[in-house]
Design a protein that fits this description.
Layout lengths: L3 H15 L14 E11 L2 E10 L8 E2 L4 E7 L1 E6 L5 E5 L3 E4 L5 E4 L6 E10 L6 E2 L6
Antiparallel strand pairs: 1-2, 2-9, 3-10, 4-7, 4-9, 5-6, 5-8
Length: 139
């Protein structure tokens, strides 16, 4: 288990570097995905949720939204992110930061032959779910 000071530092770094829903038909994840919750940090009326996400080759998060902004740092491998409306994939690799706006339908896919891993922070209203399902808007 990581000491609390490391988790708080990781949250601060993620937020400093990147500073600047209703339910629908589910599009379930595909393949093997693993989310590990590292910490939930109360910040005023919100919570910062830190997770480690691993996607096996060919795995997808399924279409979904978050009740607040998401900042991710790719720590190994690569992922492709697809947003509703645009439907084109944008690739991200090791060391790159991904920003997902609040309530933006999207999915994350590992199109490579290696395991992809990211450390993810979500800032959501206190006691709100981190993730909500979204319908597939792209063919």
């Amino acid at each position: 288990m990581m000491p609390r000071t490391i988790l708080v530092a990781a949250a601060a770094v993620a937020l400093a570097v990147a500073a600047p829903a209703g339910l629908a038909s589910a599009t379930p994840p595909e393949g093997s995905t693993n989310r590990t919750e590292l910490a939930i940090l109360p910040v005023g009326p919100s919570s910062v949720v830190l997770q480690r996400l691993q996607l096996q080759p060919g795995a997808s998060s399924g279409w979904h939204v978050h009740n607040g902004p998401e900042y991710s740092v790719i720590s190994s491998g690569s992922v492709a992110v697809q947003f509703a409306g645009k439907c084109e994939f944008t690739d991200y690799g090791f060391g790159q930061i991904v920003f997902i706006p609040s309530n933006a339908p999207h999915r994350v896919v590992n199109r490579s032959s290696r395991i992809a891993e990211a450390f993810v922070s979500y800032t959501v209203p206190e006691d709100a779910p981190v993730r909500g399902d979204a319908p597939s808007p792209c063919p």
